[in-house]
Amino acid sequence: MRKLIVAVVTVVFFAIASCSKDKAAKPTDSVVVCDSIGYTYALHVKPILDNNCSIAGCHGSVGYQDNVQLHDYATSKSAFETSDVICTVKWETGCSQMPSGGSRLEDSLITVLECWKNNGYPQ
After folding, report:
1. Percent helix, strand, coil in the chain (nearest 5)?
2. Is residue 9 part of a domain?
3. What is the pTM of this model?
4. Is 77 inside any structural domain?
């Protein structure tokens, strides 16, 4: 009987000790590290926006949604400055999820958008 009690106590101890109150980091908890590549609108950002956002009926030049246009440099920069575009593409709590009806953008694409913003929107 004593061996059974010791075994149960040991199992319970290891079960409690292995539990952690820390939650796994969410994708939105990660720190963005902008490498030495200078992400520009023309070479890096525009292709992302054109393929995922600036399409007919969404955020193009015609029929754009929520007063957000992402079809050229000026409108994209303005949207990033006045709307929380990063929050929406990262699907953070409290933000709508974009692209609407699609899959969340890959982390590497979101990093490009964040670095472009963090580096002052180079053309």
Report:
1. 50, 0, 50
2. no
3. 0.69
4. yes
